[in-house]
């Protein structure tokens, strides 16, 4: 960054941080008039069983807000809106105004709803925008800074959710405004995350941000975000126009101009959420409802469960080598299809019906060998790739007293997205452009490769792995499931479903059990550190290459018990927490 900007950045950050740290006691507030949520003192609740309604999300305050809204008379959609907006304040790494997501719902009147508010490539984007003059990928460009950002979809998604809600946006957004304006205390994990990204915030911002202060963040510090509060107030007053037009849009476009980004006023004004048709399929007498393209999640889940259904996984048992090998091989084959066939169906003819057809899946399974690994290069061609770990997408599972279920996964993509905060508006921009295939065979930050189906084109949505999922049993609500984790999302959801349906685990056991992941390329099995060494040895003897890695997923699940109670669990891998009544 230019020296002048660097100094003014530090000085203004200093002023801002004094304001943050010297948060006057009188400004401290409980959240929302009729609630008693204390943002300066809260605890994580990892699992609980509620009578009527519940929320599981990545942050205790966001879950509490969602539950309080339902207690005030809101339904699951009201809670979905309020929880997402609260997460945009208290979980800056992934909760967002500057990103996008998918909402999947089943109302108590059995209506299925899939809202797609995935970011779009700006109109000035083009296929080769991240290549140098020799045609080589300049990988950093799609990952960090202004050019990495797609046109944000979250507020359009909230706008598209409102017709299903009972309370006005004015009320649903107020907790988020309070949290931004009067602050909340940071957990240790959040303080560390902010400290880890400090250098990137300094590098990719031309204006001061509330996320940087002269000294390191520590647990218990109060984070106040006045600019974000003002943006939320504009949305409160003018709805989606308070984001896509007027002052907020001006801030975004000015930010783009400072950082050589390409999002324009027209891109913002033209952004619309899309209504999709959910994918519905069966697995062992359960109805699974998944998200269609531009998510790869629903198709992958249908493919993997389709390949596995004919095997008695229950008989083999949890983390029995036979069961694990089957799951790995199903993952390998499905992910090979992801790379070749999946992208935004508005731009590319994704052969969804073929991919989930039992005859097709049988064909894919023909070279399965129960004694050894099937090398990925015999499934289809591709290039070896790298794989980085990031946690920063986030999932919310909700059920209300009537039995309406809402499953939302939302993201900035990487941790704090592009690391660029919109100057004056206080929210981070996504780096979702990296989810496109920037060049055939070049891996994105999750090691995923792709080709024509997921090539960049103006106004196209980048392929996603986000897999918000719902499950019915006897046509009654049974599970609300989802997780962050980049390409590991569909495998985490798959293993959570299998843990519950095949291995009879509780919601908490299912999400907290160690997980493993294969994504065709690179041809390795990633395992969480607590996967049993004996299982690893067995797999290695069959020819699998094993790579230990950090956490896989941060899954949030609600399971409806036989008499209607809501067993609700939040992943132990993060600050995730449940709330309900
Ligand atoms: O849409 C996707 O597939 C990715 N942008 C999700 C990123 C993610 O889950 C990051 N968290 N681990």
Instruction: Count the DSSP helices.
Output: 20
Specify the CATH class.
Answer: Alpha Beta
Largest sheet: 7 strands, antiparallel
Q: What global shape is seen?
A: globular
Per DSSP E runs of 2 or more residues, the count of β-strands stands at 19
Radius of gyration: 22 Å
Description:
This protein has 581 residues and is of the alpha+beta class. It starts with a helix and ends with a strand. A hairpin with a 2-residue loop joins strand 12 (469-473) and strand 13. It is built from 20 helices and 19 strands. The strands form 4 sheets. A 7-stranded antiparallel β-sheet has the order 1-18-17-13-12-9-8. The chain has a single domain, classed as 4-Layer Sandwich (Glutamine Phosphoribosylpyrophosphate, subunit 1, domain 1), CATH 3.60.20. Mean pLDDT is 93; it is low at 1-24 and 381-387. Bound molecules: 6-diazenyl-5-OXO-L-norleucine. 6-diazenyl-5-OXO-L-norleucine (DON) binds at residues 390-393, 411, 413, 432, 435, 464-466, 484-486, 489.
Key terms for this structure?
seven-stranded antiparallel beta sheet, 19 strands, globular, Glutamine Phosphoribosylpyrophosphate, subunit 1, domain 1, disordered N terminus, 20 helices
Provide a concise account of the structure shown.
By secondary structure, the protein is an alpha+beta fold. The chain has a single domain, classed as Gamma-glutamyltranspeptidase, small (S) subunit (Glutamine Phosphoribosylpyrophosphate, subunit 1, domain 1), CATH 3.60.20.
SSE layout:
Layout (H helix, E strand, L loop, with lengths): L2 H19 L25 E4 L3 E4 L2 H12 L4 H15 L9 E7 L5 E6 L36 H8 L7 H4 L1 H9 L1 E2 L2 H9 L1 H7 L17 E2 L2 H13 L2 H4 L1 H14 L5 H6 L3 E3 L2 E5 L2 E5 L6 H12 L4 H4 L4 H21 L10 H5 L1 H7 L28 E7 L5 E7 L57 E5 L2 E7 L6 H13 L5 H6 L3 E2 L7 E4 L4 H9 L4 E4 L6 E5 L5 E5 L6 E4 L1
Parallel strand pairs: 15-16
Antiparallel strand pairs: 1-18, 2-10, 2-19, 3-4, 3-11, 4-7, 5-6, 8-9, 9-12, 10-11, 12-13, 13-17, 14-15, 17-18
Helix pairs in contact: 2-3, 3-6, 6-9, 13-15, 13-18
């Amino acid at each position: 960054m230019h020296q002048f900007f660097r100094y003014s950045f530090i000085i203004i950050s200093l002023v801002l941080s004094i304001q943050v740290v010297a948060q006057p006691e009188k400004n401290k507030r409980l959240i929302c008039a009729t609630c008693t949520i204390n943002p300066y003192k809260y605890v994580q609740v990892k699992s609980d069983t509620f009578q009527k309604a519940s929320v599981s999300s990545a942050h205790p305050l966001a879950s509490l807000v969602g539950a309080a809204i339902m207690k005030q008379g809101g339904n699951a959609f009201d809670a979905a809106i309020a929880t997402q907006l609260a997460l945009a304040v208290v979980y800056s790494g992934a909760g967002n105004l500057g990103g996008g997501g998918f909402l999947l719902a089943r109302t108590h009147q059995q209506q299925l709803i899939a809202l797609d508010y995935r970011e779009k490539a700006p109109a000035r984007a083009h296929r080769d925008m991240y290549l140098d003059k020799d045609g080589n990928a300049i990988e950093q460009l799609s990952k960090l800074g202004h050019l990495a950002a797609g046109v944000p979809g979250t507020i359009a998604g909230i706008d598209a959710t409102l017709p299903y809600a009972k309370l006005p946006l004015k009320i649903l957004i107020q907790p988020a405004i309070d949290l931004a304006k009067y602050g909340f205390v940071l957990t240790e994990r959040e303080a560390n995350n902010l400290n880890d990204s400090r250098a990137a915030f300094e590098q990719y911002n031309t204006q001061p941000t509330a996320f940087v202060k002269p000294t390191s963040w520590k647990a218990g510090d109060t984070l106040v975000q006045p600019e974000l509060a003002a943006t939320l107030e504009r949305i409160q007053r003018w709805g989606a126009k308070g984001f896509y037009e007027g002052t907020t849009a001006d801030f975004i476009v000015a930010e783009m101009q400072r950082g050589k980004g390409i999002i324009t006023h027209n891109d913002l004004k033209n952004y619309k959420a899309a209504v999709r048709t959910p994918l519905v399929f069966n697995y062992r007498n359960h109805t699974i409802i998944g998200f269609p393209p531009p998510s790869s999640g629903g198709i992958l889940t249908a493919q993997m469960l389709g390949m596995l259904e004919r095997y008695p996984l229950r008989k083999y048992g949890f983390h029995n080598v036979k069961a694990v090998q089957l799951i790995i091989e199903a993952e390998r084959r499905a992910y090979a299809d992801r790379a070749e066939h999946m992208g935004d169906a508005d731009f590319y003819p994704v052969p969804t019906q073929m991919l989930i057809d039992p005859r097709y899946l049988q064909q894919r399974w023909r070279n399965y060998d129960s004694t050894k690994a099937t090398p990925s290069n015999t499934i289809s061609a591709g290039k070896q790739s790298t794989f980085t770990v990031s946690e920063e997408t986030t999932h919310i599972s909700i059920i209300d007293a009537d039995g309406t279920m809402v499953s939302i996964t939302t993201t900035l993509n990487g941790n704090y997205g592009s690391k660029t905060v919109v100057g004056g508006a206080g929210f981070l921009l996504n780096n979702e452009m990296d989810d496109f295939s920037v060049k055939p065979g070049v891996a994105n930050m999750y090691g995923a490769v792709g080709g024509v189906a997921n090539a960049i084109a103006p106004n196209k949505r980048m392929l996603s792995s986000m897999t918000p999922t719902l499950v019915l049993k006897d046509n009654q609500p049974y599970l609300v499931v989802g997780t962050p984790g980049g390409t590991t999302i569909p495998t985490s959801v798959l293993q959570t479903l299998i843990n519950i349906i095949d291995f009879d685990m509780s919601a908490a056991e299912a999400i907290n059990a160690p997980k493993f992941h294969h994504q065709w390329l690179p041809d390795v099995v990633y395992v969480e550190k607590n996967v049993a060494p004996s299982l690893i040895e067995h797999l290695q003897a069959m020819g699998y290459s094993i790579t230990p890695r950090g956490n896989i997923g941060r899954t949030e699940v609600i399971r409806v018990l036989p008499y209607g109670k809501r067993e609700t669990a939040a992943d132990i891998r993060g600050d995730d927490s449940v709330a309900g009544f």
